[in-house]
Write a structure and sequence with these properties.
seven-stranded mixed beta sheet
């Protein structure tokens, strides 16, 4: 679809070949690419589930005719970002009637919400550092402008508090950053965005960073996490059956807040500092993850044994995502390891700094080369032709570390560089657990934005 818009703008007619299951997504993303009515031709069913004979039959009977039709029509172009008017979310009636209207128009996630009345939205806008009409950026696939106003509207709906507005705006800025890749939010593998919060905003706004981190039940963490999904629905218009083609989705992810007091006690740099920010700055980092799981009851005779355990966990939660390490989008895999303060403290007592831990994880989070190649080729078909890691290195699509020799059982790392492993300290300080999240690579690359407070409220 993106290639077709480039070709069309050059004056050459095009038709996008789209598998039948993705027609809704193709139609949903066309306006955001600047084209309405971009010609499409169906590929019946899904090619991976059809025989060659069935594919040939349907290409001749259906696809070829639609290609001919598409090449003789011109799409209507819409070059400007859509700006939602202040009254775009207007509805009248009781709160129950308003909720029904919002559901019918796909403006709600199906859960009860706070109706965004003018007075409530105005209260949120007073906590913002910019005017309501400020354009934060464009959100794909709809091509609609994210503004301070529609951030406030969705913040109200999510149940956030007015004082959360600076965090909500920073999240919108991250989503609008081209480096994040919001246009991939509805991809097949269903990765969902996670907000990692760092800095003084954690204590100032009452975010949970101890017991039951990553679980709902704390207003700030839960409502701000829900806000992100509502913004993607209502402004980006990433909706199931349309632009959202996730096979399996996750529920919205609650905000993960750092346990910065534990980091200070350990002498470890915070995640915010890892991202290049100072300790007096608050920031949100948004990244997309496809899976996650607990590493329970961590035990080891020494620090190295614990690192082996954690490295094994990183490997166990990585499979097809390794295409973001080599071949598909080299060097963009960014797995996240969340350590409870107790585990981090044990590693410090073993004489390990945070960078020692990262280096140890890089050393131990490895798997046999032929298994790596199976994940990215035979079992996922994400890297065409099923090349070996040696061939990918020779083509410049993998770091040389993946081809130190030709032994198919040699151990290779899951990331190209040790700094690609993200580490956050959070959770119950009296539990010996960790949590691993597999990254969706360049389909939601980690993007950080500073939380900016209103000028009259900075301290």
């Amino acid at each position: 679809m993106r290639a077709s818009t480039v070709v069309e703008r050059s004056g050459v007619a095009s038709v996008s070949l789209v598998c039948q299951g993705f027609l809704g997504q193709a139609k949903a993303i066309a306006p955001g690419l600047g084209m309405l009515g971009l010609p499409l031709a169906r590929i019946v069913g899904h090619v991976d589930g059809l025989t060659v004979a069935e594919i040939e039959r349907d290409l001749l009977a259906v696809t070829l005719e639609e290609i001919e039709q598409g090449l003789t029509q011109a799409p209507q172009r819409v070059m400007e970002a859509v700006v939602l008017a202040p009254d775009a979310f207007a509805a009248r009636g009781t709160e129950e009637e308003i909720r029904h209207t919002f559901e019918a128009r796909a403006w709600s996630d199906g859960l009860p919400f706070v109706p965004p009345t003018r007075d409530r939205v105005a209260t949120f806008l007073r906590e913002a550092s910019d005017a309501a009409e400020r354009r934060i950026g464009v959100l794909m696939p709809a091509g609609a402008a994210a503004t301070v106003l529609n951030v406030a509207v969705n913040g109200v709906m999510a149940g956030c508090r007015p004082e959360h507005m600076p965090v909500l705006v920073a999240i919108a800025e991250a989503l609008c950053d081209p480096g994040y890749g919001v246009e991939h939010s509805g991809d097949t593998t269903g990765g969902d965005a996670l907000v990692i919060l760092s800095g003084p905003a954690i204590l100032r706004l009452g975010f949970n960073y101890e017991n039951a981190a990553l679980r709902d039940g704390h207003l700030a963490n839960s409502t701000v996490g829900r806000f992100l999904r509502l913004l993607l629905r209502n402004v980006a218009r990433s909706l199931p059956g349309g632009a959202d083609k996730a096979t399996f989705g996750n529920s919205f992810r609650v905000v993960l807040a750092e346990h910065e007091a534990a980091c200070a006690a350990l002498g470890w740099q915070t995640y915010g500092a890892d991202r290049g920010f100072s300790s007096d700055q608050s920031l949100v980092t948004v990244a997309r993850f496809t899976s996650g799981g607990v590493v329970g009851s961590i035990y080891g005779r020494d620090g190295e044994e614990i690192l082996r355990n954690l490295g094994d966990a990183l490997v166990r939660h990585s499979s097809w995502e390794l295409a973001f390490t080599v071949g598909f989008a080299p060097g963009t895999y960014r797995p996240l390891l969340v350590l409870s303060p107790m585990v981090a403290r044990t590693l410090v007592r073993a004489g390990l700094s945070k960078e020692d831990v990262r280096a140890g994880l890089f050393r131990h989070a490895r798997l046999p080369a032929d298994k790596f190649e199976t994940y990215i080729g035979l079992w996922s078909n994400l890297v065409a032709g099923r090349p070996t890691l040696r061939q990918l290195v020779d083509r410049g699509l993998a770091d040389p570390v993946f081809a130190i020799d030709n032994d198919p059982r040699r151990l290779v790392p899951i990331v190209a560089k040790q700094e690609h492993i993200q580490i956050v300290v959070s959770g119950d300080p009296l539990r010996s657990n960790a949590y691993v999240l597999a990254s969706n690579g360049m389909h939601g690359f980690p993007t950080s934005k500073e939380v900016r407070w209103p000028v009259t409220d900075r301290h």
